[in-house]
Amino acid sequence: MYAIVRCGGRQEKVALDDVLTVDKLAEAEEGATITLPALLVVDGETVITDASGYTVTAEVVGEAAGPKINMIHYKNKSGYKRRQGHRQKYTQVRVTGIEKA
User: What are the distances in angstroms from CA 62 to CA 9, 29, 41, 54?
Assistant: First the structure.
């Protein structure tokens, strides 16, 4: 059984005990339980497109950071150089259940 859930503006395919990396959830602390909205549920041969009656629960595992991205701005002959860096913050969650509500 797996489900397609919406989280952080994207859709992710999740199954039981999957660890998912999503954009940082401000209200989620480590060990907290969150509910993700299910868009589609597949149970063997059965495909349920109206998954409004299903809930996907997940436990927050921790926080993670993405790779460092360096941006360099440079203008020729003017002496203008600027370096800027960015590192995206993520939250890791483990799917604990896909149930019919």
Answer: 20, 8, 26, 25
Structure tokens at 32: 């907290």
Tokens describing residue 3: 């489900």
Half-sphere exposure for 28 (CA within 13 Å, toward CB): 22
pLDDT for 14: 93
Q: pLDDT for 30-51, tens place per residue? A: 999 999 988 888 888 888 888 8
10 sits in which H/E element: strand 10-15
Residue 25 DSSP code: -
Q: What was the pLDDT predicted at 82? A: 97
Q: Cα-flanking dihedrals φ and ψ of residue 38, to 5°?
A: -90, 135
What is the spatial distance between Cα 101 and Cα 98, in angstroms, rounded to a whole number? Answer: 9
pLDDT at 73: 97
- State the Cα–Cα distance between residues 21 and 7, nearest whole angstrom: 10
Residue with tokens 């996907």: 56
